[in-house]
Amino acid sequence: MQNNDLLAICHRYLDCLNRQDWDYLGKYVADNVSYNGQFIGFTGYLNARQNEFRAIPDLYFNVQLVMANESMVACRLNFNITPSHDFLGLPVHGKLISFSENVFYEFDNGKISKVWSVVDKAAIEVQLSQ
Amino acid sequence: MQNNDLLAICHRYLDCLNRQDWDYLGKYVADNVSYNGQFIGFTGYLNARQNEFRAIPDLYFNVQLVMANESMVACRLNFNITPSHDFLGLPVHGKLISFSENVFYEFDNGKISKVWSVVDKAAIEVQLSQ
Fold first, then answer.
1. What angle do helix axes B121-128 and A121-128 make, rounded to 10 degrees?
2. How many structural domains does chain A have?
């Protein structure tokens, strides 16, 4: 695929998440998707994203940086959110937190097949300690 | 710059770190470098990297994923290291830990001018709890 094709697909995938348009997630995510080297499959991936939106009513994926090659997209995503309860094991409980996620999406036949993500938990810890 | 030029520079930068070849770090890192949006400057960046190698005698940067466009490189780096004391505020104390860093390097005139990094602290916490 051309780099710009994957960039466009990735933007549509993130829009799909932001709209919680779950009927269309399968257009962007492969049946055999893995997350940080672990197979979770499409249903596991869908459930994880749906659970996040339930736990974080104002969840929104903001793209700070994005780049693509012929098989992969890398994004730096920024979040400004107020998780209702614990988040990543931290007692956030409705406080506004801001942090980033750096993530690689590997594509297979135009769908995300491997996700390699790191969330900046340390940045949240700093904000909760202030 | 061409994408392949930045890929090559990034590989040489990581080799330079792995060799602790501090006299050459200025070939790859700009005087006004920033880290996650904060100005630290070349001297601050050099000091931070030197302190890491002092605290982690077996520190080595392994590239799992790397991609470039005309102004930026994204890498997923893997580490298998034994920090002597605390690491990221965690009591590692000589235990072998494995984790990843997803990082974007923005280039200006062929040198790294902005670093956007997230280290997988949560993965380390899981290993320390086992």
1. 80
2. 1
For residue range B98-129, what is the model confidence (pLDDT) as tens digits? 999 999 999 999 999 999 999 999 999 999 99
ipTM, interface predicted TM-score of the complex? 0.96
Across the interface, do B116 and A102 touch by the CB < 8 Å criterion? yes
Q: Which domain holds residue B108?
A: 3-128
Which member of B64, B67, B88 has the closest CB to residue A74? Answer: B67
Give B114's strand partners. Answer: B34, B106
Q: What is the pTM of this model?
A: 0.97
Q: Which CATH number fits the domain that encloses residue B103?
A: 3.10.450.50
Q: Which ranges in B19-128 belong to alpha helices (H)? A: 41-55, 121-128
Question: What is the token pair recorded at B27?
Answer: 């070939």
**Structure tokens given for A44:** 């596991």
DSSP B45-68: HHHHHHHHHHH-TT---EEEEEEE
Q: Do B102 and A119 touch (CB under 8 A)?
A: no
Q: What share of chain B is helix, strand, coil (3-state, %, to 5)?
A: 35, 40, 30
Check if the beta carbon of residue B128 is closer than 8 Å to that of residue B104: no
Closest residue to B74, CB basis, from A74, A101, A122: A74
H or E stretch at A81: strand A72-81
